Amino acid sequence: MTMPEQRQGNESISQTAWTIAHQRTLTDIPYSQVIFDALEKVRHEQGVAEIPEELKSPQIAPQIEARYKSVSNLLKESDVDQVLEIAAGFSPRGLEMTDDKHFTYVEVDLPGVMTQKRKIVKGIGSRTNLYLEAGNALDLESLQAAVQQLSPGKPLGIIHEGLLRYLSFDQKAIVAKNIHALLAQFGGIWITPDITLKKVVQAENAVVPNNTDRVGRVVGINIDLNCFEDVDQAQRFFENLGFSVERHRFLEVIDDLTSPSKLSQTRQQTEALMGGAYVFVMRVTGSEK
Predict the structure, then answer these.
(1) Range list of H helices, the chain
(2) What 3-state class would DSSP assign to 232?
(3) DSSP secondary structure string, 112-124?
């Protein structure tokens, strides 16, 4: 597959970013509502059809909230002050973190998404420490171009949410190798909650029947084929690509979640939804502190 074909094929994945933006409005994550309102304005202006009800899946919002807060907490604990978010979509984290002028933040996504994101950020209030760059997680050259905005002598935090479940294992390996190359240059860490295990997908489907099948049809991907069998297999996968792995569970932030109460979801239901989900904090092997 050529890079132009990869770009064209993966552009459809951005449709899911609208759904995630809607689910974040059920949380207390800063900028979530204003971003979704801006998306709705753009949708109306462009005559884009409304998000189908079967794709909104509000019941999964606690999982989306947990992965966001898990990544943010681990990022803050790492003490890095420059961040690259790959496949950023309409994530509010760049806006949230660059409220603090101490941080420099680069977001990368496909050109169509970045065009809309720039309009949204301009409407909210642009800031000089937030950079929005077109690029592709599978294209190291575009990622290297994006990080030219950053200081090479300082460690880098690389993050993403929701990307890897849409990629085959060969594509996951390409992304991992690209990130490895960047961390070899900068130092720092890779934080990802995209350790999509089969039991995590099963938990999602228990809450929203056939959820992954419906999303898979939208993006033209069989998500089940991209799942890890278990967390040990996932850890071995990344270790074999030159990373050390530190595991964290979504359940570590369960007491910080606001969406379960808005959805009248019990703690037991929330635990069942995300109990099998992990965040990996990874470093290039040999660079561990």
Answers:
(1) 3-11, 15-24, 32-46, 53-56, 61-78, 93-97, 111-124, 140-146, 169-186, 198-207, 211-219, 231-239, 259-262, 267-274
(2) helix
(3) HHHHHHHHHHHHH
Residue 84 CA to chain centroid, in angstroms? Answer: 11
Phi, psi at residue 149, to the nearest 5°? -75, -10
Q: Which residues is 271 bridged to in the sheet?
A: none
Identify the burial level of 199 via C-beta atoms within 10 angstroms of its C-beta, where 0-12 means exposed, 13-18 middle and 19 or more buried. Answer: middle
Q: In terms of DSSP bridges, do strands 278-284 and 188-192 run parallel, antiparallel, or are they unpaired?
A: antiparallel
Q: Which domains does the chain have, with CATH numbers?
A: 3-284 (3.40.50.150)
pLDDT digits (tens, 9 = 90+) for 69-95: 999 999 999 989 999 999 999 999 999
Q: Which pair of tokens denotes residue 202? A: 């099963």
Verdict on whether the full-model pTM lies above 0.85: yes
Record the tokens describing residue 98, joined without a space.
Answer: 């660059």
DSSP codes of every residue in 156-171? EEEE-SS-GGGS-HHH
Q: What is the DSSP letter of 135?
A: -
